[in-house]
Amino acid sequence: MNPDTSRIIxxxxxxxxxxxxxxxxxxxxxxxxxxxxxxxxxxxxxxxxPALMPWVESHNVKIxxxxxxxxxxxxxxxxxxxxxxxxEGATRSSLxxxxxxxxxxxxxxxxxxxxxxxxxxxxxxxxxxxxxxAAVGGKTAIDFNGLKNEIGAFHQPEAVVISPLPLRTLPxxxxxxxxxxxxxxxxxxxxxxxxxxxxxxIDNPEELFPLIVEAVRFKERVTDEDPHEKGLRKILNFGHTxxxxxxxxxxxxxTPISHGEAVANGILVALILSHTQLGLPxxxxxxxxxxxxxxxxxxxxxxxxxYPDLLDIMGHDKKNHTAGDIxxxxxxxxxIPGTDISIPAKEIEAAxxxxxxxx
Length: 359
Prior knowledge:
Blueprint: E1 8-10, H1 14-29, E2 36-41, H2 42-47, H3 53-58, E3 62-66, H4 75-87, E4 95-100, H5 102-114, E5 120-125, H6 128-134, E6 139-144, E7 147-154, E8 159-162, H7 164-167, H8 172-189, H9 191-199, H10 205-225, H11 240-252, H12 259-278, H13 282-296, H14 307-315, E9 327-333, E10 336-342, H15 345-358
Parallel strand pairs: 1-8, 2-3, 2-4, 4-5, 5-8
Antiparallel strand pairs: 6-7, 9-10
Helix pairs in contact: 4-5, 5-6, 6-8, 6-10, 8-9, 8-10, 8-12, 11-12, 11-14, 12-13, 12-15
């Protein structure tokens, strides 16, 4: 990736970064930039937005707020965003700035993709998970009919502004949630990156932020090469087939877990299947469970009787070619992933048995 063409902006000065990005939009299109908007949630509005208020007020930027949390990434919230844009005079030349975690960048990106058939947007992730996962790559969505990210569109942001400043407001569980996606990226990227994750002190911003940047840069390279997930981009779903199933299953039980925690557990299932199906050394399973999963995350409390429900959820995964044909991203070895690997239900159940034993 040529730095001059990268959408990723690293900064400790959010206001200056936004000022430069707005100027770049004007200079590139040589057109009037319509009304600008910031979409955020009630928590980020209190913790992070004050640092941007001088810029917001001087540019007459309108603020749209939503309730935080995955349960609000739905059609009702999306309608509220559309109505706010419409009532406040947004045009096709407007710019929407999504300031928040993955829920905000997911639903804000989808609002931008669909309002007036598409307006420009910038993501400013305020969580580790949002930075390394949702904010980059142009996937936008809402949850629908009990399924995560069921309705969405591909719509690339103008820029993704990465800063360590808002990340310092995070509680430890949210930092760990984002770390799961960093580890996922390292496992499909290189042994060197993965080994740095194994040694990292994630409570130390000086150690964590370089890992965030490396994960974001890797995802940008992959998604620019394959923007619509026809080939290479599928590797980014490592750990997500079981992970999304865990996340949906826990949400239906009324005991939701974070996306990162679900993916962390899904990675263990994927490593087990990588061993049984592709011969990945079993030592890698134990290294991950001992050094990553158990220190930072809770296990998902599944029983044998829960397997049919989990398999049914996996059968609805968007990566599957046909309904019920469950496909995984697995590792031949660390840093060498394989995609579209169809796994029979009995093999998945056997992997879930091992998963439970390891926990």
